[in-house]
Amino acid sequence: MKFFTKRIFIIQFFCFSAFGIAQTVKKLNDPSIVAQHKRQVFEKWGDFRPYPNYVFGIQTNFAYATVWGWLSPSRNQDYKNGPDIRPLKPTGLEVQRFAELEYQRNEAEKIKVEIDTLYKRNLQDFAHWTSITSEADPLWLLYYKKMLKPLKEFPANPQNFMQWQLKDDKTYQNMLAFGEIDYLKEQLDLLKDQYDNSRTLDMPRGKRFLMYHETLIGWRKFVKRIRSGNQKNTLYLDYKNLLTSVKSAVTPIPPKSDKEIVESIMTKYKNSF
User: Fold this and answer.
1) Phi then psi dihedrals of residue 248, to 5 deg
2) What does the pLDDT look like over 20-33, one tens digit per residue?
3) pTM of the full predicted structure?
4) 261 within some domain
């Protein structure tokens, strides 16, 4: 309890002491300090207080002599007799710093705008580059998706004439025998790979559509070759069937012996001589 009372007393003592000191402090208004403040900012250069006091041409103001006069340091005299070095004058160092800071701020804003533009452009380029967003591309949705759908749905490893979209099994077997099916299978594998690469690999948007276009041209040639194989083999089979029917309609003539040939000739020309 005594310790607590003692601490309260000490706190009260310091509070009353601080209040008493605050009451005794008076505002300081030194003209020399005010003049120095004016020189340090933009207001006025000069008013070098304290002023000299001459009596019969003799300097009698000791304060002036020690601050600006012959008893003062040389740097004080150089300062008083030197140029206007106010930092906040129109051409002062601080004003130049402020102007430079403003210029740097403007440049920083320009750089920020450029960086934001580059960032947005990079996002756009990434959207056009990556295969993740290729499915949402308008040109793909409007044209190439529809045109390349038959290639996508075409079997990767056809095994019969229906999967090859041929007329019948005879045509398929004939093309298989002449090696046309093997050639078409190689072309189909190349088109399938090109289509998969154009859909899965990351590349510029223009290059991706060039691959779409090349794949579409190759697919049209592939379909045209299948149709041509259908037509050629249909014609071949028609000729083959026609030749077979003609051969079956003609009665074969048995060959004659040499004796029979001579006798037929003698019989034909016996009355001519």
Assistant:
1) -70, -25
2) 444 455 666 788 88
3) 0.48
4) no
